[in-house]
C-alpha cells in the first residue's frame, strides 16, 4: 500500500480535503466512462497545478511512429496510441474578475470528491477563498449517459458566501489536444470545421493517418437558483480547433448560479455525418432534460448492478474494492459493439497503448460471460476472428511464417501488431494460447458450440499452425522445444522452454485436432468449407500432433516442480521474504540486467498454467509448485495477485488468499505499484471478480455443470454473487454457517457442491 486517502465506503469512492500531490492519482480513480467514451476526473475549471488531462473515445486511435534507438527487422512500424480526444468538459470560471484556480486560491476548504458507483455519477465540491477575498461554495456533478452513450452532462454550481459576485463562465470545446505519451510530440488531430450556434458549438476534427472523424459538441444553459435565465453568450471566440463562449452573470450572496453543459462526441465509426448526429444528440438531451437524464442513468446502473454486484458483509474496504473493480469494467466495456475491446487502462489513461492485450481472453471474458448475456463474450471472440487475416500477416511479414500460421498481436487496435519492445512483441507468444483457451472457455461455460464451426475453428487452425512451425526438434532431448521466448513472467526474456508456453502450445494443437474431428462429425458442411478455405490436409494435422505428442517440459524431479524455463535453478534462489524492502519494487530500483538475472517473478507463470488447466494436475502438484514459485513472486504486475488468491483458496491457505484478494481489489485505490496516476489497471480488475467467484466461491465448470467449493475469509461475515450460467441466474450466498443457492425462475439447475450433486431450485441451503 502506497496511499491511504480514499475513505472506506460501501458504494462510493470518496476523497476529503484538497491535496495537490494527489490530484493526478484522483484523476485516475474518479474517472468515468460509458463504454463508448470516458475521461479522467480533470477539473472543469482552470487548474495550474500538476494534472494529466485525458478524454478518450472507444475505437479511435493513432499510429504513432515507433521510436527506438536501434531498429531491428520485424519491428512494428508504429505504436498505436489511445488518443487524448478533444476536450468538451472545460469551463473557465471568473469570479469578481479573478480566475478560479484551486492551485492559486488563498484557501480551499471542505474539498470533497465522490464517485457514486451505485448510480454512475461523479461529484466534486469545495469552498474556496480567492485572492480578491471572495468566498465561494462550488458543487459540480458530472456523468456520461449509458442510454445516450455519445452524451455527457455537467452541472456546475457556484454560491458566493461573503459578498455578491459577478460570475463569468467560459465553456469551450477544444480539439487542440496532445497525448502525454506521444513519441514525436506531434499533433494527432487535424481541425476540419467549426460551427457556432446561440448556445451550442461544434468542432469537427479528424485524426492524421487513420482519418477518424469526430465532432465534439457542447450546449450551455445558465441558471440562477435552478431557473433558466435565458441568456446568450456575450462573446464567442473561435480558432480553427476551439470555440469558447462567455456568459456574464451577477448573483447575490447566498444565491446559486450554475451552468449546465451538455457535451460529447459523434464519430465516423457510427455516422456518415458526424455534425448532424451531434446536433441530434443535443436536441435529444435537451428534450429529456437534466433530471430525466440523471434518473435514466440511475436506472441503467441499477440494471447493471442487479446482475454483476458482489456483496461482502463485515469488511468495508473489501466491499469497496470489488465494487470499484466491477464499476470500472462496466464503464469500459458493455459488449454492444464487436469492433471494440477492453484496453488495459480503459478510459483512465494512455499507458500501454492499444485496445487489446491477452488480458481480455485470460481474465476479462469469464467476468462478462457470467454477469451478462453470452452475446457479450461472443462479441469479444468475434473481435479476434475478424482480425485473423492480420494475425496471419503478422506471423508472415514479421516472423517469416507461412501457410496460414497466425500470431495474434501482443497489442493491437485493428489487428496489426503495434507493440514495439522486441522481447515482448515477438517473444511473448503465449498470448496465442490465451486466445484459443478463450474459445474453449466460452464453449465450456455457455454451452454454445456454434461459434466454433462458424468462426472459432479457423482461429484455432491458424494458432495450431503457428505452434507447429514455432517449435523445433532437439536431437539432444529427442523432443520438440520452443526457444527464445518470454513467458507471462516478463522479468525473463529470450529464454528457452518456458513451461507455460510449451504446455499451452501442446494443448492448443490437441484441442484444435479435437474440434476438427467434432466439426467433421456434427457440422460436415462447415468442416468442408473451412478445410477448403484454409487448405488443410490430414498430413498437416499429423505433423502438428507429432510436435504436441513429443513436447518437452522442463522439470525438477528433486523438487517435484515444473521449471519455469531451462536453467531456472541456476539462479541465486533468494526468496522474496529475504529481499530488503528498500529494493522494492525491483522494476523501479534495479537495472534491467539485474532483474533478468534474478529469480524474481513478475506474475503467475508456471502457476498460470495451473490456473488454466487445474484439472490436468493433482492438488499435491499444485501445492508444491505454488509454494515454490510464490516464494519468488514480487507481484509487480496487476495480473498477479488474482491468480495467487484463487490458488491459495483452493489450497485452503485462506489468510494468504485474503491478502492477495485485498491487493488485487485495492491495487489502484491503495496504489500498490506507485503508478495509479498513469491510469487504473482495468483488465486486471476482472481478476478481482475471479478471486471471489472462483477463489472463495470455488466455482468451476466441469462436465457441463457448475461446481462450487465455498470458503469464506475469517474477516468477512458473508458474501454473495450471481452467475448467469446458460441463461439461468444462480445466486450464491455464503456465510460461516451455510451456503445458499437460489435460482431465478422456475427451472431447476443441477450443481455440484463440495463434490455432491445438488438440485438448485428457488432456494437450496447447504450447511
From TrEMBL:
Name of the protein this chain belongs to: Glycoside hydrolase family 65 protein
SUPFAM superfamilies (UniProt xref): Galactose mutarotase-like, Six-hairpin glycosidases
Top-rank taxon: Bacteria
InterPro entries attached to this UniProt entry: 6-hairpin_glycosidase_sf, 6hp_glycosidase-like_sf, Gal_mutarotase_sf_dom, GH65_N, Glyco_hydro_65_C, Glyco_hydro_65_M, Glyco_hydro_65_N, Malt_Pase/Glycosyl_Hdrlase
Family: Belongs to the glycosyl hydrolase 65 family.
UniProt keyword list: Hydrolase
All residue ranges annotated as the Glycoside hydrolase family 65 central catalytic domain in the record: 323-690
UniProt GO MF annotations: hydrolase activity
Upper taxonomic lineage: Bacteria, Pseudomonadati, Bacteroidota, Flavobacteriia, Flavobacteriales
Organism (species): Flavobacterium azizsancarii
Amino acid at each position: 500500500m502506497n496511499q491511504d486517502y480514499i475513505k472506506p465506503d460501501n458504494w462510493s469512492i470518496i476523497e476529503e480535503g484538497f491535496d495537490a500531490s494527489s490530484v493526478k492519482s484522483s484523476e485516475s480513480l474518479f474517472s468515468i466512462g460509458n463504454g463508448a467514451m470516458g475521461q479522467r476526473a480533470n477539473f472543469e475549471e482552470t487548474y495550474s497545478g500538476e494534472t494529466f488531462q485525458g478524454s478518450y473515445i472507444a475505437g479511435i486511435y493513432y499510429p504513432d511512429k515507433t521510436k527506438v534507438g536501434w531498429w531491428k527487422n520485424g519491428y512494428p512500424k508504429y505504436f498505436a496510441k489511445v488518443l487524448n480526444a478533444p476536450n468538451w468538459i472545460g469551463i473557465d470560471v471568473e469570479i469578481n474578475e479573478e480566475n478560479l484556480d484551486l492551485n492559486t486560491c488563498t484557501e480551499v476548504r471542505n474539498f470533497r470528491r465522490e464517485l457514486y458507483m451505485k448510480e454512475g455519477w461523479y461529484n466534486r465540491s469545495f469552498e474556496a477563498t480567492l485572492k480578491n477575498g471572495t468566498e465561494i461554495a462550488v458543487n459540480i456533478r458530472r456523468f456520461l449517459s449509458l442510454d445516450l452513450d455519445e452524451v455527457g452532462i455537467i452541472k456546475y454550481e457556484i454560491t458566493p458566501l461573503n459578498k455578491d459576485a459577478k460570475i463569468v463562465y467560459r465553456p469551450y470545446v477544444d480539439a487542440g489536444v496532445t497525448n502525454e505519451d506521444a513519441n514525436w510530440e506531434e499533433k494527432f488531430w487535424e481541425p476540419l470545421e467549426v460551427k457556432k450556434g446561440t448556445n451550442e458549438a461544434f468542432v469537427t476534427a479528424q485524426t492524421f493517418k487513420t482519418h477518424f472523424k469526430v465532432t465534439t459538441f457542447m450546449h450551455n444553459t445558465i441558471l440562477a437558483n435552478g431557473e433558466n435565465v435565458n441568456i446568450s453568450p456575450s462573446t464567442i471566440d473561435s480558432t480553427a480547433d476551439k470555440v469558447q463562449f462567455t456568459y456574464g452573470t451577477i448573483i447575490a450572496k447566498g444565491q446559486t448560479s450554475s451552468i449546465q453543459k451538455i457535451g460529447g462526441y459523434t464519430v465516423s465509426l457510427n455516422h456518415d455525418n458526424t455534425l448532424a448526429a451531434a446536433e441530434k444528440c443535443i436536441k435529444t438531451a435537451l428534450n429529456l432534460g437534466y433530471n430525466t437524464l440523471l434518473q435514466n442513468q440511475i436506472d441503467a446502473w441499477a440494471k447493471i448492478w442487479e446482475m454483476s454486484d458482489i456483496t461482502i458483509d463485515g469488511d468495508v474496504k473489501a466491499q469497496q474494492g470489488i465494487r470499484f473493480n466491477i464499476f470500472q469494467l462496466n464503464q469500459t466495456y458493455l459488449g454492444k459493439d464487436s469492433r471494440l475491446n477492453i484496453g488495459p487502462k480503459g478510459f483512465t489513461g494512455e499507458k500501454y497503448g492499444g485496445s487489446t492485450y491477452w488480458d481480455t481472453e485470460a481474465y476479462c471474458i469469464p467476468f462478462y460471460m457470467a454477469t451478462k448475456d453470452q452475446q457479450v463474450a461472443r462479441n469479444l471472440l468475434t473481435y479476434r476472428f475478424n482480425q485473423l487475416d492480420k494475425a496471419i500477416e503478422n506471423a508472415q511479414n514479421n516472423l517469416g511464417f507461412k501457410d496460414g500460421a497466425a500470431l495474434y498481436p501482443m497489442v493491437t487496435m485493428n489487428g496489426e501488431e503495434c507493440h514495439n519492445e522486441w522481447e515482448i512483441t515477438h517473444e511473448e507468444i503465449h498470448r496465442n494460447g490465451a486466445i484459443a483457451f478463450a474459445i474453449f472457455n466460452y464453449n465450456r461455460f455457455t454451452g454454445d458450440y456454434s461459434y466454433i464451426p462458424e468462426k472459432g475453428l479457423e482461429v484455432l487452425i491458424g494458432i495450431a499452425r503457428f505452434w507447429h512451425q514455432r517449435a523445433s526438434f532437439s536431437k539432444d532431448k529427442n523432443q520438440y522445444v520452443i526457444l527464445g521466448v518470454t513467458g507471462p513472467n516478463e522479468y525473463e526474456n529470450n529464454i528457452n522452454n518456458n513451461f507455460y508456453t510449451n504446455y499451452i502450445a501442446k494443448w492448443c494443437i490437441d484441442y484444435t485436432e479435437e474440434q476438427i474431428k467434432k466439426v467433421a462429425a456434427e457440422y460436415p458442411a462447415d468442416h468442408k468449407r473451412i478445410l477448403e478455405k484454409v487448405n488443410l490436409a490430414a498430413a498437416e494435422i499429423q505433423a502438428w500432433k507429432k510436435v504436441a505428442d513429443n513436447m518437452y517440459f522442463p522439470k525438477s524431479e528433486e523438487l517435484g516442480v515444473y521449471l519455469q524455463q531451462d536453467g531456472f535453478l541456476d539462479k541465486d534462489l533468494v526468496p522474496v521474504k529475504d529481499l530488503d524492502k528498500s529494493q522494492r519494487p525491483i522494476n523501479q530500483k534495479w537495472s534491467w540486467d539485474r532483474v533478468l538475472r534474478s529469480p524474481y517473478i513478475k506474475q503467475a507463470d508456471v502457476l498460470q498454467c495451473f490456473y488454466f488447466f487445474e484439472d490436468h494436475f493433482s492438488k499435491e502438484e499444485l501445492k508444491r509448485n505454488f509454494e515454490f514459485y510464490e516464494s519468488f513472486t514480487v507481484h509487480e504486475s496487476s495480473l498477479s495477485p488474482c491468480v495467487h488468491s484463487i490458488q491459495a483458496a483452493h489450497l485452503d491457505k485462506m489468510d494468504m488468499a485474503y491478502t492477495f484478494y485485498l491487493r488485487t481489489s485495492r491495487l489502484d485505490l491503495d496504489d500498490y505499484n506507485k503508478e495509479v496516476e498513469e491510469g487504473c489497471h482495468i483488465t486486471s480488475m476482472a481478476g478481482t471478480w475471479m478471486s471471489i467467484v472462483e477463489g472463495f466461491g470455488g466455482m468451476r465448470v466441469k462436465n457441463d455443470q457448475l461446481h462450487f467449493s465455498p470458503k469464506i475469509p475469517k474477516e468477512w461475515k458473508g458474501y454473495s454473487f450471481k452467475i448467469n450460467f446458460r441463461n439461468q441466474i444462480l445466486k450464491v450466498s455464503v456465510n460461516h454457517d451455510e451456503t445458499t443457492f437460489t435460482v431465478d425462475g422456475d427451472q431447476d439447475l443441477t450443481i455440484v457442491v463440495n463434490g455432491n450433486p445438488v438440485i438448485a431450485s428457488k432456494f437450496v441451503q447447504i450447511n
